[in-house]
Amino acid sequence: MGSGLNRVVFTDNTHPTYTAEHYGIAEGASSNDVESVEVDAYGNVWCGGFYLSYFDTKLKRFATFGKRRRFAKGIAFGTASSCKDTQGNLYFGGSHGFNYFHPKYLKPIHNQLKVYFSSYANNGKTVASAIEYRNQLKVQYPNNNLTVYFSTPVIQCSTALAL
Predict the structure, then answer these.
(1) Do the Cβ atoms of 68 and 158 come closer than 8 Å?
(2) Predicted confidence (pLDDT) per residue in 35-76, tens digit
(3) pLDDT digits (tens, 9 = 90+) for 14-32
(4) Of 52, 81, 142, 156, which is most buried with the most CB atoms under 10 A?
């Protein structure tokens, strides 16, 4: 508890040798608080602690659920309060009850999102809008107070998520 997610792989049965890997905040975890761990049918690791995190074992990075889309039963998950049933549903005990879901319905978006630049301002005054359709943008010299506005539109469906 408190040291992130650690993976130990034993490399030789005759001589006790192993490799160890540590995954935490540097890999995208919201914190190093990991209280309970479950592995889904795809080999990915779900960690309950402060928020619920999903560790993609292929990409070696976390996605955290609960910061923007809070689970109904709280965001703090208890020590050893998780389990997996025979259908692959995962259960995590939270600060106000428990949450259950099937991992195939609760997947983060791992692809690179396209950034759309919408406008920019000079000294707090909007100079240009709809700049995503321009090939270039000229800024007068000297300009030391420039603000660029952008977004990454994402639409995510949470169908079949039981909370």
Answers:
(1) no
(2) 899 999 989 999 888 888 888 888 888 887 755 555 545 568
(3) 887 888 888 888 877 878 8
(4) 52
